# Entry
Amino acid sequence: MSKPSIVLVHGAFADSSSWDGVVTKLRAQGYPVIAAANPLRSVKGDAAYVASVLDSIEGPIVLVGHSYGGTVITNAVNGNANVKALVYVAGFAPDKGETAVYLSGKFPGGTLGPTLAPPVTLPDGGKDLYIQQDKFRAQFAADVPAVQTTRMAAAQRPVTEAALNEASGDAAWKSVPSWFIYGELDNNIPAAAISYMAERAGARKTVNVKGASHVVMVSHPDQVAKLIGEAAASAR
# Structure
């Protein structure tokens, strides 16, 4: 039988290239892979966009979300029976009504707020958020080589303030099996918060990568790809 398709959804302050290492490893194993471009504008709108990508795929799908991308995949399933597994990579797994801001502040340890640059005001009155470039590595990717994080900081894609404060809809993890992996030293979403969400979701497996930062898929693509593969094995 053909292998399930893997759809990867990046989070805030990142882009699809954050999955490069994971894509390489999954494709080497014969998986069809799409690293979707997450708009980072609103939970509802971003989820609708990812849902349209899912609708274009035939056969079983493993849906993977990093950080805010976890909120997006939670809302993007929307009854699509082809989605057989959810993988949260240092990702939010909100219940209905919860926001990214609420979940990241539920446990101590998150330090994102003070590292944010002054918001960029948008034509519609909204605000775009960036991490200050000189604080990007320590906050977001401390276990990634500095030469690489310099590029990541310059190329980071902003998320709207409204998206991080937008309430999630129905939680797909209540009906779709889930897997979680996160970094022990995540400064964006405290490890305790992710552990809490994984336990609440009844995760099939949860992996805590010792010494890893928020971008565990960049610094430890082998471990992330391995977990996605385990989820995919159940999706056939």
In short: The two ends are 8 Å apart (CA to CA). The first strand starts at residue 5 and ends at 9. The mean pLDDT is 97.
